[in-house]
Amino acid sequence: MAEAPLKGLRVVELARILAGPWIGQTLADLGAEVVKVEAPEGDDTRRWGPPFIERPRADGTTERVAAYFHAANRGKTSVTCDFNDPADLDRLRALIDDADVVVENFKVGGLARFGLDYDTLSARNPGLVYASITGFGQDGPRATQPGYDFLIQGMSGIMDLTGAPDGEPQKVGVAWIDIFTGLYGVIAVQAALAERQRSGRGQHLDLSLLDCGVAVLANQAMNHLLGGMVPHRLGNAHPNIVPYQLFPASDGHLILACGNDRQFAALCRVLGLPDLPADPDFATNPARVAHRDRLVPMLTAATSRRTRAELIALMEGAGVPAGPVNDVAEALSEPQILARGLQIAPEGIAGLRTPIRFGRSRMAHDRAAPALGEGGWSFGKDPAP
């Protein structure tokens, strides 16, 4: 199998928590050499537990680190840097002189007083791609304000779209905007590297949690921008598709997702409601959206009479998208996930790989998250071309 796609790429990560480290981990999984630069006490998420993982260090001691840290730091090496120590700063600048990419998530302007801002570093290394992740971006009226995922979920509109109509707004169960920002960061870094091959120059990348959170509102934003409506939460229903929601079975719940009229007709046949697809109020998706208050109770009465397993089997046989509502343990033990090899255990520490498969190239999943400060202040000998 061919080498990892980003083998030879050199990355310095000056980031903590999740969005920035997610960029670094994804690049490491793709083969980049990522040096994580941490404060002497380490990334905050090393202490965000329980649960905690204990493992031996090279010096014979034991390191106790939260599972959270292992979620976003696989494949990196770690060095510690005291920004108040001129010698440490000199070592860091020398490391960045040899780097292709810097990822940082300090507050706007926070690195300038240490000579670690883009203008200073790019003067020494003109090809440097420098990705900055902040809550609100490098400019605008909120640029200097701090921003965490939960705060940004509220500001982005997604919490008003999530939860029961008569309940309080709900956040997504993971740091969803941090993850999206990290993924957009990976896209931006690779695009800037591709452009560098033409221009020979790096550039500054400006990523905002709020920008990313609003940008992925997708159809809900379009419902407002083009339709003039202000969408609000519908529980597990879909604003533009019916039926596309959670339904009760006799022993639990399942999801039914009819994306077209053919699937709706098949659903009705399975549920013993063969006349519904011919009814003008239900014959098309726009009609079903307009009359969902009548349609959904009829479907609910029919699904409630059968078990979840029976319904899912019947729907799969009829070509109707249907599935269970799994907890995390059930999701991780889903036969399809096991067959795809999503679970990995580098150095014996369980984790989930970056969900990409290449036809020829391999991914770099052989190293766990690093012990604090056990890396070196230099890169390998094979830089990216």
Automatic annotation (TrEMBL):
Organism: Paracoccus aerius
InterPro entries linked to this entry: CoA-transferase_III_domain (IPR050483), CoA-Trfase_fam_III (IPR003673), CoA-Trfase_III_dom3_sf (IPR044855), CoA-Trfase_III_dom_1_sf (IPR023606)
Signal peptide: none
Transferase among keywords: yes
Protein name in UniProt: CoA transferase
PANTHER family: SUCCINATE--HYDROXYMETHYLGLUTARATE COA-TRANSFERASE
GO MF terms, alphabetically ordered: transferase activity
Domain of life per record: Bacteria
Lineage, opening ranks: Bacteria, Pseudomonadati, Pseudomonadota, Alphaproteobacteria, Rhodobacterales
SUPFAM superfamilies the record matches: CoA-transferase family III (CaiB/BaiF)
Keywords: Transferase
